[in-house]
């Protein structure tokens, strides 16, 4: 069995780990609440834009024409800033690596420092950006990718991210952002009335729909990464608390054992001293 000193050092280490896990759990809870609140507020608008895309997807696509269909595709990977999130990052990386491996030549945008480091280690050039709840930040990245499409440097834009199911479940998925397509099989805008004119309305509607599609997935990715970190750190914190209680009990038992042994040794020494003194006194008396 470990010594009392070793147990105390182990207890201090476990307590420090628990404090770090607790702090990260609190930060992840705040981050998840922030992204989830933004996602909840944005959901009705995203649904309305999704319905418009299904109805007029073909016509809306005119606002984002593909200049060079033979150009390489562009992928936007929505990752995370940090690890310590269970299998969240690595499930996404495995999924993205498989898709990128089949793509050959491509352009890459990556959200999150941890995700960017993963792809840089593989020698892949990329444009890094941060996940944010600000629509303006997402719009800036989207406009940059759309500019590459307009200039003929890329032929498509695809999002790779973890689709948020619930706090415990996120599923790697892909979404073809550009060129725009109608998932409902529609796309005919000939029966619609456009004010002030058709081109202006379709251009503005297309920008709104593409922006909503991208921003909604940015929020999903942010909520998912924070939820994964929260669940992982909560488990680490609970394990640290359980280990702390167990080590404290071991230390208490070991201290009690040492005290008991010391008392027994002291009592035994006192008894031997008294017995020896009585014997010498008897001999003097005789």
List the helices and strands and how they pair.
Elements (H helix, E strand, L loop, with lengths): L3 H57 L13 E5 L9 H16 L3 E5 L1 H9 L5 E3 L5 H16 L6 E10 L2 E10 L19 H88 L1
Parallel strand pairs: 1-2, 1-4, 2-3
Antiparallel strand pairs: 4-5
**Low-pLDDT regions:** none
Broad CATH class: Alpha Beta
- CATH homologous superfamily - what is it? ATP synthase, F1 complex, gamma subunit
Question: Which percent band covers the strand fraction?
Answer: 5-15%
Mean pLDDT value: 88
Protein structure class: alpha/beta
Please provide the count of β strands. 5
Question: At CATH's second level, what is the architecture?
Answer: 3-Layer(aba) Sandwich
Gyration radius from CA atoms, angstroms: 32 Å
Give a quick account of the main beta sheet: strands, pairing sense, barrel closure. 5 strands, mixed
Strand order of the largest sheet: 3-2-1-4-5
Number of domains: 1
